[in-house]
Amino acid sequence: MTKTQGTKTIKFKYKTGTTASGKDKFANNTIAKVDSTVSDEVIFAMLPLVAKLQEVASEDVEVQQNITMK
After folding, report:
1. Residue 57 to residue 13: CA distance in whole angstroms
2. Calpha distance 60→8 (Å, rounded)
3. Which H/E stretch holds residue 50?
4. Helix (H) or strand (E) holding 58
5. How far does Cα 22 stand from its chain's mean position?
6. Which of the residues 13, 35, 36, 52 could staple to 60 if both were Cys, CB 3.0 to 4.6 A apart?
């Protein structure tokens, strides 16, 4: 079996409001197909720049690596 690294996805979670019962509501945005050779350190170093573009600040940021097994 061969493991092949695919692209990365950056997922941003941000608060969009509250429900009628007072619980926080969240939405997600993603940046897909990030080159797999880009290190997590580089991705997290660029987050302050991305934050300046966002209307609402992110509550959480997740980096996902896609891997294929054949």
Report:
1. 9
2. 16
3. helix 40-53
4. strand 58-69
5. 26
6. 13
Angstrom CA distances, 5 to 26, 36, 67, stand at 30, 7, 5
pTM for this model (two decimals): 0.71
Euclidean distance between CA atoms 65 and 57, whole angstroms: 23
Strands 58-69 and 24-34: unpaired
pLDDT block averages, 10 residues each, the chain of length 70: 84 92 93 90 89 82 85
Which two three-digit tokens encode residue 28?
């997600």
Q: How many residues does the chain have?
A: 70
Distance CA 34, CA 22 (A): 36
